[in-house]
Q: What sequence folds into this?
């Protein structure tokens, strides 16, 4: 393997006209200000922007103002989507919101997010928080850890993302400032989709076919 | 203070569209431009360059330089593609270090496509033309994208009296000429030409106008094959109409 | 069975385009272009052009320091617990993946869309080793069932109808289904879900590799890439060395350009940012991560300072969408995995000009691709550089054109470079065309010019301008018009910019053959004496007569044989 490595690198160096690397490239061009940065405005406006973008791509957004509304909404979701089994992130916020208990009370079997993938694949619903979000595109940024297992937002056919206003960031550049060094994160911008067959848009392919995004007031 | 313009007649326009050249001469003279024509010119070398024969292109370009290099004033051609060749490829053929480089550089700076010369150099958009017909305009690719001539032809046509300009669907899309392309891949060229002809016919125009002989030959041939009465004209002919 | 492309015959391919291909392709491309245009409007032209320039500059910087950044990628991925492999060519890359699979007793593989893996024909190699490999991108899944190559970078099965796909599912999966995209997608979803959950290994490509962090970035809409890179215990990413991006801030610019340029979405549905394997068991994700860095000809692309910019490509497909040639014939005509304008410049460089000499000519040089490319690759300029490589050869590859072509070009250049021969030829043609022309048109010409007349008539030569010029009386200036004239003082302003651009970008072209140096003295250039011009006219008449005799003979022979 080292022969291939050396051969490739030396070919590159010979072509670019410099000897073996001194390990330093000159700094890349500063591109952070290539387009005027979007400023954050009133938080309500920004939340509406996030939800508006998500609605455009087929997600189902809403705002939740009170704890009671959250529980009622969960009940409605379980009923309308026929949720029998669910999984969720195990973060402080999700625990504090009592999601697992509410679902159990609704007759839903709740499995932890770190369960075997075959079990998770049987779940109808996956509930996560949102680490960061972008108003320009409605993108939800989800990290990965023991508390935030990756498959929760991937395997169930319904993904419910609970969004706090504090997650809002003005621009992709800020997002990368914060999470750029993480070992894994994913951008979610809508329910899964394809137009591969005759360019007809079909929602729901492999990733969740339904994405609910609920913007919770900080007070919830 | 007379402005001088050397006619760069181009091989295709000389052989197939002398009326475009006559139109260009007429417009320039009526604008008070002192027009001259270097006799030794033949071709800019583009057919060779575009088919990968850069050495041969250089040979032909040297003749162009011999014809134009020592002249005064501007060099004006009724062709976006020939001017694009001079602007964008002559300095590649005669780079820094080549004995002709400085001559080429000076010539490149003076060379203009006809509509650009009128609008950008002379500052004129109304050339006193009258052409009482329905016209649609095909934006030839090299002029449009190579030289950025988006507005100049339009501004000139807008000032022509009694001319009704009908927008051409997909006006920016290539007509399928592409020089040697038309004979290397005739099936694809045909497909593109047919699309262009259909779009032209759909406008209901009497005349289709373009700025390059290659496009005109291709489109005119296509319209004839389609037995269409629509005429093809070079923009210089329209601008010279009274 | 591995297909090794030996020679791409573009013309032959264009003669066999199924009739439904162009309309299917155009339906997709016009949709993507329309969506893209709407988003560019929202961003604003100035901002969009600024983004394009930034995208170009940062990618150029990455390519200019490719060795350093690749070493950084290797370091970071290794620090993150991943394994980095280097593959000089397709065979080596296939072997690396096979070795990893064998070491882990892999029997089932799920794969997300990766042009690089198609380039190296990885699936065939795995299947030959008795390892099942399933394409999970819906379009790729469909063409895998159909046994064909992709016809578009973004929507590989766009040339197939829903009826065709329903038939395909019936034939290959034994499932009866109506030609309804929703139903067909659901079938694929169920089939593939089982594969995702039980695969031993997931293979992906990557849209980008970020050197600063060792992160691979995978963009998708369906979620299959997330499945392939999350569920199996082992993840192998095969990525071209040209995908390098210096840092995350640079990546932000490219992500703003990519989805908008590709499909006209502000952001694709999913973007995964993966640095090595999982860190904790409970988070899920692969325990083991391998990155295969693929050369396969990319180092050759670097060798030429103009063609080097081919490496900037972010595989968005915008050039395909806007290309009138691609829209006329679809992707298969290009004969390899990369089609459209990017295929026309990449294939001859990765496969070599011997194989792909047709492709640089598969363009009318309209320039639409260069205008739309989000990272400002000068595609038309590269096409011209590659045509030169094919016809005359350069420092990267020898010429592959037949000597007869070069001889013909020499003869042509000698004629065009000489005013005497040029005008003689024109006069000859004017006379020779007479028997062939009707009403100002020539309906058919002998080969090879019949390639023109088979499609549409050729106009007759008119000539006579120079005579007219000598005889015409200059028009008097029209005062009402001359008053408008204000000569723009800095006349060098307009083209000077293009001069700087050209001299900056262009290196010294290699001199390959001895070029006949034609020096024309000013005296020769213009007929100075009456005697001189009379002698010239006489010589021309003789030359014309001889040429006509020759041509008449040729035409008679042609008519006799056809």
A:
């Amino acid at each position: 393997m080292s022969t291939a490595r050396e051969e490739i690198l030396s070919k590159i160096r010979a072509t670019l006209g410099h000897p073996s690397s001194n390990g330093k490239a000159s700094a890349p061009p500063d591109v952070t200000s290539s387009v005027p940065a979007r400023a954050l405005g009133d938080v309500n406006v920004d939340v509406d922007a996030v939800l508006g973008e998500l609605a455009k791509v087929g997600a189902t957004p809403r705002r939740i103002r009170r704890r009671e509304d959250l529980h009622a909404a969960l009940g409605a979701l379980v009923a309308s989507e026929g949720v029998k089994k669910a999984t969720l992130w195990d973060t402080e916020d999700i625990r504090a919101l009592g999601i697992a208990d509410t679902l159990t009370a609704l007759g839903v079997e709740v499995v932890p997010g770190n369960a075997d993938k075959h079990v998770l694949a049987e779940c109808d619903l996956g509930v996560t928080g949102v680490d960061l979000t972008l108003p320009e595109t409605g993108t939800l940024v989800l990290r990965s850890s023991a508390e935030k297992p990756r498959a929760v937002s991937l395997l169930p056919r319904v993904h419910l993302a609970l969004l706090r206003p504090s997650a809002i960031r003005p621009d992709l550049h800020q997002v990368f400032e914060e999470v750029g060094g993480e070992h894994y994160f994913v951008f979610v911008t809508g329910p899964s989709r394809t137009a591969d067959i005759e360019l007809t848009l079909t929602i729901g392919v492999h990733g969740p076919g339904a994405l609910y995004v609920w913007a919770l007031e900080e007070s919830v | 203070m007379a402005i001088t313009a050397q006619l760069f007649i181009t091989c295709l326009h000389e052989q197939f569209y002398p009326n475009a050249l006559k139109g260009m001469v007429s417009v320039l003279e009526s604008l008070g431009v002192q027009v001259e024509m270097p006799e030794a010119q033949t071709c800019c070398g583009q057919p060779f360059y575009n088919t990968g024969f850069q050495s041969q292109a250089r040979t032909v370009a040297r003749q162009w330089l011999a014809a134009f290099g020592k002249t005064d004033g501007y060099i004006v051609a009724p062709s976006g593609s020939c001017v694009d060749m001079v602007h964008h490829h002559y300095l590649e053929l005669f780079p820094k270090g080549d004995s002709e480089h400085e001559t080429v550089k000076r010539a490149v700076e003076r060379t203009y496509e006809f509509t650009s010369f009128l609008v950008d150099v002379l500052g004129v958009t109304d050339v006193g033309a009258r052409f009482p017909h329905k016209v649609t305009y095909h934006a030839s690719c090299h002029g449009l994208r190579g030289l950025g001539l988006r507005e100049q032809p339009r501004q000139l046509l807008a000032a022509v009296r009694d001319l009704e300009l009908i927008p051409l669907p997909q006006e920016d899309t290539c007509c399928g000429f592409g020089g040697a392309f038309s004979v290397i891949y005739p099936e694809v060229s045909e497909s593109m030409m047919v699309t262009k002809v259909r779009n032209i016919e759909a406008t209901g125009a009497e005349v289709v106008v373009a700025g390059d002989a290659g496009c005109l030959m291709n489109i005119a041939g296509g319209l004839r094959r389609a037995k269409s009465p629509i005429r093809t004209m070079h923009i210089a002919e329209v601008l010279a109409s009274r | 069975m591995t297909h090794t492309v030996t020679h791409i015959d573009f013309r032959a391919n264009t003669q066999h385009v199924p009739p439904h291909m162009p309309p299917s392709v155009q339906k997709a491309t016009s949709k993507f272009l329309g969506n893209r245009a709407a988003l560019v409007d929202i961003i604003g032209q100035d901002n969009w052009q600024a983004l394009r320039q930034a995208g170009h500059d940062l990618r150029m910087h990455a390519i200019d320091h490719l060795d350093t950044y690749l070493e950084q990628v290797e370091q970071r991925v290794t620090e993150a617990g991943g394994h980095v492999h280097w593959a000089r060519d397709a065979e080596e890359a296939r072997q690396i993946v096979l070795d990893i699979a064998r070491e882990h007793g892999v029997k089932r593989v799920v794969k997300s869309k990766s042009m690089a893996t198609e380039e190296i024909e990885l699936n065939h190699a795995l299947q030959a080793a008795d390892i099942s490999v399933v394409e999970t991108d819906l379009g790729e899944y469909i063409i895998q069932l159909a046994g064909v190559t992709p016809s578009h970078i973004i929507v590989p099965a766009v040339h197939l109808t829903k009826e065709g796909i329903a038939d395909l599912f019936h034939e290959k999966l034994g499932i009866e289904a109506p030609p309804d995209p929703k139903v067909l997608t659901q079938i694929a979803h169920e089939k593939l879900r089982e594969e995702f959950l039980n695969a031993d290994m997931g293979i992906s490509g990557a849209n980008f590799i970020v050197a600063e962090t060792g992160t691979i970035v995978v963009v998708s809409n369906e979620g299959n890439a997330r499945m392939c890179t999350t569920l199996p215990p082992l993840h192998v990413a095969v990525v071209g060395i040209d995908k390098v991006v210096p840092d995350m801030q640079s990546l932000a610019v490219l992500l703003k350009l990519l989805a908008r340029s590709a499909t006209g979405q502000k952001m694709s549905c999913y973007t995964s940012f993966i640095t090595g394997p999982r860190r904790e068991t409970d988070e899920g994700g692969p325990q083991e991560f391998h990155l295969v860095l693929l050369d396969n000809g990319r180092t050759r692309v670097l060798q030429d300072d103009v063609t080097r910019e081919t490496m900037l490509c972010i595989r968005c497909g915008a050039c395909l969408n806007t290309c009138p040639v691609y829209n006329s014939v679809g992707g298969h005509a290009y004969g390899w995995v990369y089609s459209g304008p990017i295929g026309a410049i990449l294939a001859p460089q990765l496969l070599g000009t011997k194989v792909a000499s047709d492709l640089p000519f598969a363009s009318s040089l309209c320039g639409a691709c260069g205008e739309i490319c989000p990272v400002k690759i000068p595609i038309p300029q590269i096409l011209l550089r590659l045509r030169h490589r094919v016809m005359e050869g350069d420092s990267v590859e020898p010429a592959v054109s037949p000597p007869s072509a070069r001889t013909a070009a020499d003869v042509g250049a000698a004629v065009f470079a000489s005013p005497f021969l040029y005008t003689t030829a024109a006069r000859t043609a004017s006379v020779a065309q007479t028997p062939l022309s009707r009403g100002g048109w020539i309906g058919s010409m002998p080969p090879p010019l019949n390639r023109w007349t088979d499609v549409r008539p050729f106009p007759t030569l008119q000539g006579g301008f120079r005579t007219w010029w000598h005889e015409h009386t200059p028009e008097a200036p029209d005062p009402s018009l001359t008053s408008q004239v204000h000569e723009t003082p800095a006349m060098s302003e307009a083209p000077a910019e293009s001069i700087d651009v050209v001299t900056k970008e262009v290196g010294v072209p290699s001199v390959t053959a001895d070029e006949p140096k034609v020096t024309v003295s000013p005296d020769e250039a213009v007929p100075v004496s009456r005697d001189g011009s009379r002698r010239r006219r006489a010589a021309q008449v003789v030359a014309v007569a001889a040429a006509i005799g020759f041509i008449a003979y040729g035409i008679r022979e042609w008519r006799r044989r056809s």
